[in-house]
Automatic annotation (TrEMBL):
GO MF, one example: hydrolase activity
Keywords of the record: Hydrolase
Keyword Flavoprotein: no
Name this polypeptide is given: Hydrolase
Source organism per UniProt: Paractinoplanes deccanensis
Lineage: Bacteria, Bacillati, Actinomycetota, Actinomycetes, Micromonosporales
Keyword Hydrolase attached: yes
InterPro entries linked: ATPase_NBD (IPR043129), GppA/Ppx_hydrolase (IPR050273), Ppx_GppA_N (IPR003695)
Domain Ppx/GppA phosphatase N-terminal: 17-300
Signal peptide: none
């Protein structure tokens, strides 16, 4: 069966068209656009007209690709920004008009479970896992082995932390301290809510983690095959985080693995990852290129 899954987050919108057979996904197409749907939501409580227009433009391209692919089932999930916004109905109406299906504005708990389902498929590492999905507006924490044992979503993400605290270019030390305090408080709540102390392997999902891991590896270009299931140490993550926070955006843009739409918020995302590793006592993290998008696709046929 050919299915199409769309994940619309605070920072990016992504498409996966895949054939599903015997519980395995075979990619037909993967796409990602930075649309920054959640721009300003933490401050205004609303999705801006500009952000909605950017998202609509990307979605129109995805809708055309889905139609030409012959996908028989389509599911779109929308996460942190569209949960928080006062004008979320406007977003839902736009999606229905372009895609022909309603977006599912999923809860943080469902987001966490979908991320887990996508991340653990094909993962050969010591269980139980602590899965962290660092998004633009929120971060999901999920623990489990064959099944989920605990899940929680916290309102810390690379866009939200940058807009809230990291205003300088590069951010001032006092701004970094304020962000660390905010992140640390949220991480401690999350780790207390799920049985994170039992986790043997930390797995990180989404663009922040994969970009940090690519930088830690010194890759000459973004290479998903070399990033997927790569393990890097806490010391490597800490060094990359310190370097990113010391760079102005123009220098980050020049890094060969950096997506242009991520350069201004990657420092906040790296800081979240570093603090999670500290507070969870994890000496390394495994990156996964498979995440909530894969989970959405899996759930279309099970």
């Amino acid at each position: 069966m050919r299915v199409a899954a769309i994940d619309c987050g605070t920072n990016s919108i992504r498409l996966l068209v895949a054939d599903v057979e015997g519980g395995r996904l075979t990619d037909v197409a993967r796409r990602m656009e930075i649309v920054r749907l959640g721009e300003g939501v933490d401050r205004t409580g609303r999705l801006s007209e500009a952000a909605l227009a950017r998202t609509k433009k990307a979605l129109e391209v995805y809708a055309a690709e889905i139609e030409s692919s012959g996908a028989s089932r389509v599911r779109m999930c929308a996460t942190s920004a569209s949960r928080d916004a006062d004008n979320a109905q406007e977003f839902r109406d736009m999606v229905r008009g372009v895609l022909g299906v309603d977006p599912e504005v999923i809860t943080g708990d469902e987001e966490a479970r979908l991320s887990f389902a996508g991340a653990v498929a094909g993962l050969a590492a010591e269980q139980p896992y602590l899965i962290v999905d660092i998004g633009g507006g929120s971060t999901e924490f999920v623990t489990g082995g064959a099944d989920v044992s605990g899940a929680i979503s916290m309102d810390i993400g690379c866009v939200r932390m940058t807009e809230r605290h990291l205003h300088g270019d590069p951010p001032a030390p006092s701004e970094i301290v304020a962000a660390e305090r905010d992140i640390r408080a949220a991480v401690d709540v999350a780790l207390a809510a799920v049985p994170a102390q039992d986790a043997r392997t930390l797995v990180g999902l989404a663009g922040t983690v994969t970009t940090v891991v690519a930088l830690a590896q010194g890759l000459p270009a973004y290479d998903p095959a070399r990033i997927h299931h790569a393990r890097v140490t806490y010391d490597q993550v800490a060094a990359v985080t310190e370097s990113l926070l010391a760079m102005p955006v123009a220098e980050r843009l020049a890094l060969p693995v950096m997506h242009p739409g991520r350069a201004d918020v990657i420092g906040g995302g790296a800081l979240i990852l570093r603090i999670i590793m500290e507070r969870a006592g994890q000496s390394s993290v495994i990156a996964s290129e498979h995440d909530i998008l894969d989970g959405i696709a899996y759930k279309l046929v099970v």
